[in-house]
Amino acid sequence: MTGRIDLHRTHDGAVAHVVVDHDAKLNTLNPDLMRDFAAAFAALSAEEGLRAVVLTGAGPRAFIGGADIGAMAAVTSPAGGEAFIRLVHGCCRAVRDCPVPVIARVNGWCLGAGLEVAAACDLRIATETAKFGMPEVRVGIPSVVEAALLPGLIGWGRTRRLLLLAETIGAAEALEWGLVERVVPRGAPGDASPAAALDAAVEEWLHLLLEAGPQAIRAQKALIRKWEDMALSQAIAAGIDAFAASWRTEEPVRMLGAFVNRKRQAG
């Protein structure tokens, strides 16, 4: 079984939940699964009514446990290696190119290609039992493609620890480093299951995203993407252009007007 990409909707279809379902192999990514992953995100990205995406792995054991070792072991040439890693990059790029926020719901192991996919997401939320690592050097290859996002998240020193020492860190340390933005405790016996607690925390973030202007959120994600590749002066100029362009939609007039009216009524 090569696994599959499952998709379901919430919030009247405005939120897509993408599930990497290869649970028998810790949701590791093989070539067929990576092609399906990129295609699913490309289709979602074309939907005008989409407001957010939640990405997770099937079952409680793993988000994405990395690239499929068997598939990598079958590579026999530099050309084959390039073809394989371009598939990994294609998954990460599809997430980054998605015009709406993508939340990584990290429910277990998040390793190698899985951590690269998580880094490509806009926000990351994890259970307290999640584990993170980049073990590639232990099997004779470097960590590449969207591992290049890690210094911006956690700094160069911590990136070197993950990539050179191939350390695995827990959720608490990942939170301290800035690798994830929130960690959800397991709770006391009798409380909601870890999966339910994680889902509830994701819903809190979705509520905040859905309260915002849809076009403003899309513009903000696009601007953040630009900032990553720009000098400060260029980033500021791009922000000025994006701010002015928001008035090409009705959102600023409508939402600013509603805010002012609420303040008047409250006063």
Structural account:
The protein folds into 2 domains: 4-210, 2-enoyl-CoA Hydratase, Chain A, domain 1 (Alpha-Beta Complex), CATH 3.90.226; 213-266. The protein has helices at 31-45, 69-73, 78-97, 113-120, 150-154, 156-165, 171-177, 194-211, 214-228, 232-245, 251-266, and strands at residues 4-10, 15-21, 52-57, 62-64, 102-106, 109-111, 123-127, 131-133, 168-170, 182-184. With 267 residues, the chain is of the alpha/beta class. The protein has a 6-stranded mixed sheet with strand order 1-2-3-5-7-10, sandwiched between helices. Strands 4-6-8-9 form a 4-stranded mixed sheet.
Which runs of at least 5 residues are low in confidence (pLDDT < 50)?
Answer: none
The 3D shape can be described as globular
- What is the name of the CATH class of the largest domain? Alpha Beta
Task: Name the CATH superfamily classification of the largest domain.
Answer: 2-enoyl-CoA Hydratase, Chain A, domain 1
Q: How is the CATH topology of the largest domain named?
A: 2-enoyl-CoA Hydratase, Chain A, domain 1
Per DSSP, the total helix count is 11
Give the helix level as a range of percent.
40-55%
Radius of gyration: 20 Å
The major pleated sheet works out as: 6 strands, mixed
